[in-house]
Amino acid sequence: MDERAALSMLETELEAAGDDAAVVGEQVITTDMLHERSDFPDGTSRYTAGWRAVGASLSDVAAMGAAATAAVAVYAAPEFDRTELTEFVEGARDVCELVGGAYVGGDLDNHVEFTVATTAIGRTDDPVLRSGAEPGDVVCVTGEFGRSAAGLELFRAGDRERGNELFQFTPRIAAGTALAPDATAMMDSSDGLARSLHQLAEASDCGFEIEFDAVPVADAVEEVADSDDERREAALFFGEDFELVFTVPEDAVETVAERSPVPITRIGRVTEQDLLIDGETLPDRGYTHG
Amino acid sequence: MDERAALSMLETELEAAGDDAAVVGEQVITTDMLHERSDFPDGTSRYTAGWRAVGASLSDVAAMGAAATAAVAVYAAPEFDRTELTEFVEGARDVCELVGGAYVGGDLDNHVEFTVATTAIGRTDDPVLRSGAEPGDVVCVTGEFGRSAAGLELFRAGDRERGNELFQFTPRIAAGTALAPDATAMMDSSDGLARSLHQLAEASDCGFEIEFDAVPVADAVEEVADSDDERREAALFFGEDFELVFTVPEDAVETVAERSPVPITRIGRVTEQDLLIDGETLPDRGYTHG
């Protein structure tokens, strides 16, 4: 079984699984594991690793429309270097403070590969699931896409400073809680915009019509993309951008855009079936987490 | 830096760290990572692995005197076998249900070694810390010691059935909540009774006088121990037993023993300084988590 098949199996087994975070009463909880090999390219600082690992879990809390309560992490490495560990904790703490949560520690473990397991908890009395989109709703996103794809290219080109800068994203907790009262379905874009749209459509049993020209692409992508194909790949399929993808009734779009602390962009509309981009089928592929 | 030095550094850095679980408002949260190599001996079923990994985090919740809310796990393995994964989830779910919590899923990850990262959350409005023991208090424990040491020997001897049975422990949530109103300091014994006593004494800035003959030793230890030394090693130093070690005022011992759903045994008393067992210094060693 590959990871995706195994995840589907678990969703069938466990009632609370299958969304960005599990809901338990008024709490949400989510956990994730990241590795040096697949998630932290050469040049990623331990500060960025702490920020990004904990940020990824906070992004799942945001995707439920929940406020952030706290996060913990297991830091597993072949050895414990004081400076690296301190930087990791600072990154983890800073990203939590940025979104109003508390980083409250965790555990250490010896491991052959640098590996981080993070968990975040949040609270909401009305979680936004992936499953509420209705035909006629509008499809929107927060922020811009392609930052992480651009960051990876910059790391490859040896520009550690800008790579690290682009890899430190803002988990959309503030936007998520602002959108929650009106959003009909929501998730984060960690596996890529295309995969997220497919997952939202499947969970809501609907289709989408997306316009690629409407998708907000990060300026950094222009610096590293040599062609329209590369630009499209970075924005739609690369993933790891941790923006929110959500649906909202037509008459609420303006209100949520005003309420949101980050730019909201309308990229399409909800239909009865089929996932189309500029009239053609949108491939269901994206970032496969290692 | 070794793991223990690194943990001390983190405790200085992070105010909420340093106890069995971090306290955030009325919630407690704890996370842990276990590995095939160091934590799951040959013969451990995936059901037992799920039970034990999630149980270890629930034990940390119990050590705060908190009720269990929920747990999640990241299951990382070289490949995902449907039967193994299902058994793991069943073990995780059963141990949660046993203590009134919910197992709400988690994440999957590809990893060279079978590795599990678990997180549990609980709730209490009055957490019991490690730091409240006072001279004159009595030192008590729940249950029996040496089960895991005996389990490991049975695995080595090829008795998988009994090894797995001994490795499935009951996280002391019910006992912990029953003791919480009176316990002055508490932690779990995952690193071994000796290490736990040292950690409690250090956090409370006190000493203990322990009587070895009073320490309840599991019957299974008698089957596998060939000498008094081996018996002592299993009960005091091996660890991984997940019982509660706590202090309580002399006049509350009887009440808590009556209130607790598992046997409570008095093993010594709190003094001003020094950690003695039968009048001699108790070595500060125990299970070092890999």
Q: Report the C-alpha radius of gyration of chain A, rounded.
A: 18 Å
What number is the mean pLDDT of chain A? 94
Q: Biggest protein-protein interface? A: A-B, 57 and 57 residues
* Element pattern of chain A in H and E: HEEHHEHEEEHHHEHEHHEHEEE
Low-confidence runs of chain A (pLDDT<50, min 5 residues)? none
Given the helix and strand composition of chain A, which structural class is it?
alpha+beta
Please describe the biggest sheet of chain A, giving its number of strands, its sense, and whether it closes into a barrel. Answer: 7 strands, mixed
The helicity of chain A comes to: 25-40%
Q: State the name of the first-level CATH class of the largest domain in chain A.
A: Alpha Beta
> What's the count of strands of chain A?
12
Seen as an oligomer or otherwise, the chain set is homodimer
Please report the number of helical segments of chain A: 11
Walk me through the topology.
Two copies of one chain form a homodimer.
Chain A lengths: L2 H11 L8 E3 L2 E9 H4 L6 H18 L3 E11 L4 H17 L3 E9 L4 E9 L14 E5 L4 H10 L3 H8 L5 H7 L5 E4 L4 H12 L2 E4 L8 H6 L3 H10 L6 E5 L4 H7 L4 E8 L3 E3 L2 E2 L9
Parallel strand pairs in A: 3-4, 8-11
Antiparallel strand pairs in A: 1-2, 2-5, 3-5, 6-9, 6-10, 7-9, 8-10, 11-12
Helix pairs in contact in A: 3-4, 3-7, 5-6
